[in-house]
């Protein structure tokens, strides 16, 4: 039995005539008669009492009628919902964003996407790059934004930002007026860093170790604006991406290019290579790729 059998049966029951049902379905009368006969043989019961050219439901046919109506309605609702999914009219996308990324790059993109696809729900989860990558890998997020490099064997991706970290200091800091600063120049300063679940934390610690010193980390936070406020209060030195530094009040802090080493801040959107991507998620990736082009 397939759904077409049930649809033909319902039309025959509605019209009480194989001929009229066939005309309504745009098929031949022998076709619907054969379909009904096959259905009766499969179920082992007579569904219609043939009375000349007229047909009437048997008691078994009446039982099937109620069930068939529910089944066909459910099938039609299912196909309608699937059609909406494939045409990207509805869906849900779970996206992981580090705080700095969400504030700087995504409000406009999300607004444009919502305007074009109002039926798609975007669920945003804010966390550090390391946690976002782990959650995408575990299937808890569909898509994430992370700091490069990432695991190319596990994730597909597209990069959309190539910037570097800048030094953020109080105006009275000895390097406030410098044209550039070396990380080694800061070995005796108090460091204001992101928490350990942020990839930037590990990267800065690793660069300090490579230069032969362990930084004096006095505060850790998950919020870039809090870190910048602590630098403005002269509680230590901070390291923030160029995009964030453009939003800082330069009357309260000084921004100095960090060199030797220049620490890159390259971002990419990632998703699992071996995971299922919904139609909505695929559309988001294509939309975001185009919207974020030219952010380098």
From TrEMBL:
InterPro entries documented for this protein: HTH-type_LysR_regulators, LysR_HTH_N, LysR_subst-bd, WH-like_DNA-bd_sf, WH_DNA-bd_sf
Pfam families: HTH_1, LysR_substrate
UniProt domain HTH lysR-type: residue ranges: 1-58
UniProt xrefs under SUPFAM superfamilies: Periplasmic binding protein-like II, Winged helix' DNA-binding domain
Keyword entries, A-Z: DNA-binding, Transcription, Transcription regulation
Family named by the database record: Belongs to the LysR transcriptional regulatory family.
Protein name listed in UniProt: LysR family transcriptional regulator
Organism, scientific name: Gordoniibacillus kamchatkensis
């Amino acid at each position: 039995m397939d759904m077409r059998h049930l649809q033909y049966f319902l039309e025959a029951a509605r019209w009480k005539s194989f001929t009229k049902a066939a005309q309504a379905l745009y098929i031949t009368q022998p076709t619907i008669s054969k379909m009904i006969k096959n259905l009766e043989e499969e179920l082992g019961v007579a569904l219609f009492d043939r009375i000349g050219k007229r047909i009437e439901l048997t008691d078994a046919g009446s039982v099937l009628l109620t069930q068939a109506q529910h089944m066909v309605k459910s099938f039609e609702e299912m196909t309608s919902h699937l059609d909406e999914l494939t045409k990207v009219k509805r869906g849900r996308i779970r996206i992981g964003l580090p705080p700095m990324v969400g504030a700087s790059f995504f409000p406009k993109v999300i607004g444009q996407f919502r305007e074009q696809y109002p039926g798609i729900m975007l669920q945003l989860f804010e966390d550090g790059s390391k946690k976002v990558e782990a959650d995408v890998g575990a299937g808890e997020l569909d898509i994430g934004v992370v700091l490069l490099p990432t695991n190319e064997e596990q994730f597909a991706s597209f990069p959309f930002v190539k910037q570097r970290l800048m030094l953020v200091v109080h105006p009275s800091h000895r390097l406030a007026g410098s044209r550039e600063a070396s990380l080694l120049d800061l070995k005796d300063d108090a460091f204001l860093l992101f928490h350990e679940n942020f990839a930037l934390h590990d990267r800065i610690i690793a660069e300090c170790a490579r230069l032969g010193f362990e930084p004096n980390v006095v505060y850790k936070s998950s919020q870039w604006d809090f870190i910048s406020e602590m630098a403005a209060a002269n509680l230590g030195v901070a390291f923030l991406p160029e995009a964030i530094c453009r939003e800082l009040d330069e009357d309260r802090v000084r921004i100095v290019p960090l060199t030797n080493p220049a620490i890159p801040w390259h971002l990419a959107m990632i998703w699992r290579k071996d995971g299922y991507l919904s139609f909505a998620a695929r559309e988001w990736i294509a939309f975001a790729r185009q919207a974020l082009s030219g952010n380098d």
